Amino acid sequence: MKPVYLDNNATTRLDPMVLEAMMPYLTEHYGNPSSIHDFGGPGRVALARARSQLAALLGASYESEIVFTSCATEATSTAIHSAVTLAPEKKEIITTAVEHPATLAVCENLERMGYTIHRLAVNEQGALDLEQYRALLNPNVALVTVMWANNETGVVFPVPEMAEMAHEQGILFHCDAVQYVGKCPISLANTAIDMLSCSGHKFHGPKGIGALYIRRNTRFRPFLRGGHQERGRRAGTENIAGIVGMGAASELADIHMPMMQSGVVALRDRLEQGLVAQIPHALIMGKGQPRTPNTLNMAFEFIEGEAILLLMNQVGIAASSGSACTSGSLEPSHVMRAMSIPYTAAHGSIRFSLSRYTREKEIDHVIEQLPDIVSRLRTLSPYWQEGKPQAAITQDFLPTYG
What we know:
The chain is an alpha/beta fold. The chain has eleven helices and 14 strands. Helix 6 (about 160-170) links the parallel strand 5 and strand 6. The protein is globular and about 70 Å long.
């Protein structure tokens, strides 16, 4: 059987139609779109079309609200930088304890500079406390920056409602929508979101291209300076091939949205139910919460997630233990810690993330292989004996992360 790829939250396969759309701009249409001669013309036309395609996917009111960047990390840094630069008297930022490192690292740096960073807690299901959030909103907050969907658990946060609450206090709202765009319908025109980050390679576009949505009339200060590109909001010669690819991927994502909302959900649920039925002491992260249609995060107690991944790789299954940006650490992810997942379960957390290319036979291959892998590893675990966890470390005695 061909290898099974279930790590689509890390990156997705480039759609062949996207590659086809990009190729002319890697070969004959190589002109700089800022040039006034004929060589620049095709690039200018392609840039406008891609902006329109992404604006349509996001449900933006105006194509001009789209600013292309090198990636979502740049887009997020730009949004935060703009907010604090324009309101230097405001020294507070609200985010969550489970944000992507692209947000957390910037906030930690601002914290060292004297800002107060409020990190909203989540419960064991990964849900935010909106009452805590409401209590933190005050005139000294420069920005709220919250992800729409968590990259590890797939849990969807009530971002439109949170943006409305921020606006009631006159506070800017930024959303990291990297794991939401292309998977769930969006209509930014009908929200109070001021800025939003997304990345092309998360929905079958190329790597190295992202975008920042900036609502019309939102005050903004560019991060990269040096040129007039993107209406002066992001300097640097445009990556036309990448932008064309992100535009084409946007149009295809819109077309395939019903499949994400039905077919991919069905496959994810098939995987979840098949594994739960065969593997005891397996926890579903975010169970009972709204989740993105493609994400399943399961914690297998009393064994190491890295060992599971290595053995799955040997039978042709690719998944991950969490964010690709934090993999390799021996500690449970900050998301698992924030959810207060028991220590011996947090270490065995595995994220399966599907795509529109995932097939039923691939899901069945995982259901067939993984129970044996977990069983084999548990026989080697000092915390597991004769098919049961040792009494000394049953659930009542497991340490948890606060």
